[in-house]
Amino acid sequence: MSKRAIYYDTETTGLKPGKDRLIELAAYDPVQERRFVSLINPQCPIPVEASNISHITDEMVKDAPSIQEALTQFVDFCSDPDLILVAHNNDAFDQPFLQAEFT
After folding, report:
1. Burial per residue of 78-91, b for 16 or more beta-carbon CB atoms within 10 angstroms, e otherwise
2. CB-based burial of residue 10 (10 Å sphere; 0-12 exposed, 13-18 middle, 19+ buried)?
3. Measured at the alpha carbon of residue 34, what is the angle toward residues 21 and 11, in degrees to the nearest 5?
4. How would you classify residue 12: left for phi > 0, otherwise alpha for psi between -120 and 50, otherwise beta?
5. Which among 7, 4, 24 has a CA at the least distance from the CA of 86?
6. CA-CA distance, 35 to 20, in Å (whole number)?
7. Alpha-carbon distance values, 87 to 6, 58, 62, 64, 99 (Å)
8. Residue 93 DSSP label
9. Is 11 within 8 Å of 54 (Cβ atoms)?
10. Going by DSSP bridges, is the β-strand pair 22-29/34-39 parallel, antiparallel, or unpaired?
11. Could you give phi then psi for residue 44, rounded to 5 degrees?
12. Which helix (H) or strand (E) holds 75?
């Protein structure tokens, strides 16, 4: 059986997985035409440089779900065992951030 792609993207407080935090997680399932989008409260200030890139501010995430809540929802969205996650910069950026948050 072939794998079905889910396209996803992350926004973060910086460039270092394990040090910097996720502030947004989004995914798209083109087969089922479903979307997942969640801002995430990183429990720390978002540096101005990161806000300039993502356009996500401290004010926007102050009432957002915690990383645990967002990841639980993301895992539910991606619950089909025949899925594969695809991201533009997966190996160098998105995947290491997800892995750091899951540990």
Report:
1. beeeebebebeeee
2. buried
3. 15
4. beta
5. 7
6. 25
7. 9, 25, 26, 23, 14
8. I
9. yes
10. antiparallel
11. -160, 160
12. helix 67-77
Phi, psi of 27 (to 5 degrees): -150, 155
CA–CA separation, 17 and 21 (whole Å): 7
Residue 2 pLDDT: 82
Q: What is the pLDDT at residue 49? A: 97
Q: The tokens of 59 are what?
A: 């004010």
From the first residue on, what is the mean pLDDT of each consecutive set of 10 residues in the chain (103 residues)? Answer: 90 96 97 97 97 98 97 94 92 93 85
